[in-house]
Input
Amino acid sequence: MGKVHERVEGRLRAFVERQHVFFVGTAPLAGDGHVNVSPRGIPGTFGLLDERTFAWVDTSGSGSETIAHLRENGRIVVMFCAFDGAPNVVRFHGRGRVVTRYDEGYAELAARFVDLPGARAVIVVDIDRVSDACGYGVPLMDYAGERDLLPRYFRRKGVEGSADYRRRKNRTSIDGLPAYDYDPLDEWATLDGLGRIRERLAAQIDDWTYPMSFGLALDGELGHVNLPGGQHRLAAVVLATVLKHDGSTATIAVSPQQLSEAITALAPATACTEVDHPNLAAWRALRDAYDERGGVITAVFVRDGADPVTSPVDADLRGRW
Ligand SMILES: Cc1cc2nc3c(=O)[nH]c(=O)nc-3n(C[C@H](O)[C@H](O)[C@H](O)COP(=O)(O)O)c2cc1C
Output
């Protein structure tokens, strides 16, 4: 039955390192903050560094809760369940630290594991309590294989594309705590750099064509109108990336979360002081107005002025040309 161990060694270590999945739990300090559990376990990317230290290679992903919580308070529990063989549940309680791909010491740590496309950090857990429990309630399951989707996704994006993704998805936690905000922003500081970022994003959207005009509206009221012939192509591709849209003529419902994501994604562009950022300012104003009074947010894209009008907001947009 349940037992506390001094260290992780022998059979316990072998059990941990042959798992196909484990779970990590963290929480922010705020009493009303969102706690988090994330699955991990990509083969060859986790293991014991010594009998009181566990580590895994942390890949870019849809969130960055674990890193945010570790940065704030360090507390973590790692759990392994025996889905085959003898029943067991093992927990490591401890303190986790984040060694990012930009930190000294990363290469040495990462070299202990297989190369993982999209890797953003190695998380090192200094274990202060090792325990196991009977595991009698854990179901028996057969392992059918890896999906391989996550590494493939980030292999396709490449190093820079993965950093673009993290700037959009990983900079803060659900509660707004700083999370993975380590990717350098130098490229964002120049017009040339913004152009390269724009083209990288555009290349990742199937059948992408730049719209000649677009805008965002709250309850049908347009904010900034991007006129035909204007300098708005980065904002257009950022918004389209978030909305999973190809830039064709359309009126699209935008959720408040999507608006926030678009703002986060475009915000680093303020590092470039050679140009104004009217879309970013308008999107922020729109979000403030939404936070105050709610409403319906829509995006309008017009690829070609000859396309049929898709909504009253679309008609309004074209009326401003
Ligand atoms: C079965 C499974 C195994 C996973 N293994 C890993 C892993 O080994 N390393 C990793 O960084 N992410 C892994 N992930 C993805 C993360 O759970 C995902 O990226 C998550 O969004 C990041 O969690 P966070 O918000 O706690 O940072 C795995 C996901 C699943 C479903």
Observations:
- The pocket of flavin mononucleotide is lined by residues 21, 36, 38-42, 45-46, 56, 58-59, 61-67, 150 (CB under 6 Å).
- The radius of gyration is 23 Å.
